[in-house]
Write a structure and sequence with these properties.
The protein is mainly α. It is built from 7 helices and 3 strands. A hairpin with a 7-residue loop joins strand 2 and strand 3.
């Protein structure tokens, strides 16, 4: 449904309409993702951490700072998120022997298995971008990049 009709509003400029539409759509996607992740007892930031660790490779430890820098959603409580993942045995954590302030984290086999299970359903359930052609998806991505520049 067109954004003006969806929220029963008119816009002063096309730019204002685009901004409201972007925010509205972002929140809509976030709600869908959160509902999906609740089936796995995860939040989207926790899922993001697991994906970052999986991307580093099995058995590869990353520092907490590296993980924070790679997150899609910047979270001030990354350490707390990792504590919860550790409690669920989805990650492993160890202190650097040379500098106890530095913490290294890697994904556990249980975490890998969970991501594998999520992968089977994630694209089908959440990828609204499948409705876009390759050209539309590239155009949208370029527009979003332009907005951040």
């Amino acid at each position: 449904m067109e954004i003006g009709k969806e929220i029963k509003s008119k816009f002063k400029t096309p730019q204002q309409k685009a901004f409201v539409n972007l925010r509205y759509t972002s929140n809509w996607i976030l709600k869908k993702q959160n509902k999906f992740m609740s089936n796995y007892d995860l939040t989207m930031p926790q899922f993001n951490i697991l994906r970052i660790l999986r991307g580093a490779g099995e058995g590869v430890f990353l520092t907490v700072t590296t993980i924070k820098n790679r997150m899609v959603e910047i979270s001030p409580n990354t350490t707390r998120l990792m504590d919860k993942l550790l409690e669920k045995k989805l990650i492993e954590r160890e202190r650097c022997p040379d500098d106890k302030r530095i913490v290294h984290v890697c994904i556990s086999q249980l975490g890998m298995n969970l991501l594998s299970d999520i992968d089977k359903h994630f694209d089908k359930e959440l990828t609204m971008t499948n409705l876009l052609s390759n050209e539309e998806a590239e155009f949208l991505s370029n527009i979003l990049d332009k907005m951040r520049s």
